[in-house]
Amino acid sequence: MKIKKLKNITPKIRIPRTLSPKSWKHEASGTQGNVTLFGVNIFSCGWKLTGKTARVQHPNHGHDFKFPVYSVDIDGSQKEFAAGQMNHSVWSFFLPKY
Fold first, then answer.
1. What's the pLDDT score for residue 15?
2. Cα dihedral 61, 35, 49, 80 sign
3. For the chain, which end, N or C, has fewer CB atoms within 10 Å of the first or last residue's CB respectively?
4. pLDDT tens digit string along 42-64?
C-alpha cells in the first residue's frame, strides 16, 4: 500500500493589522459626549470597528496604548480614527498620518 504525502496545510488566520505610533497623530481628547472630530460631535456618529488596531502614544506622557480603529460616515464620506480611554473619564482620538 502506497501512502500519499499530504501537503503542508497552514490554516489562514486573520490577524488585525497594528499600525505603529508614527502612523497616528493625536487629534482630540475629552469626556464622553464632548469631543469634536471631523467637525461633528464624534459620539453622535455610528462607529464601526475596522478590525485594525493602532499603537498610539499618550500626547503628554509618551505611554504606549493599543486602540481599535473605527470608521464613521460623515456626510457620505468614510473617515477612520483610533480611539480609547487613556484614563478613567477621558477619551483620546488619533487620526492616521499620510
1. 54
2. negative
3. N
4. 999 999 999 999 999 888 877 88
The pTM of this model reads 0.77
- Residue 15 in any domain: the answer is no
Range 45-77 burial, b when 16+ CB lie within 10 A, else e: beeeebebbbbbbeeeeeeebebbbbebeeeee
Structural domains in the chain (count): 1
What is the C-alpha to C-alpha distance for residues 80 and 47, in angstroms, rounded to an integer?
9
Q: Which three cell numbers stand for residue 20?
A: 505603529
Establish if 13 belongs to a structural domain: no
Residue 61 lies in a domain: yes
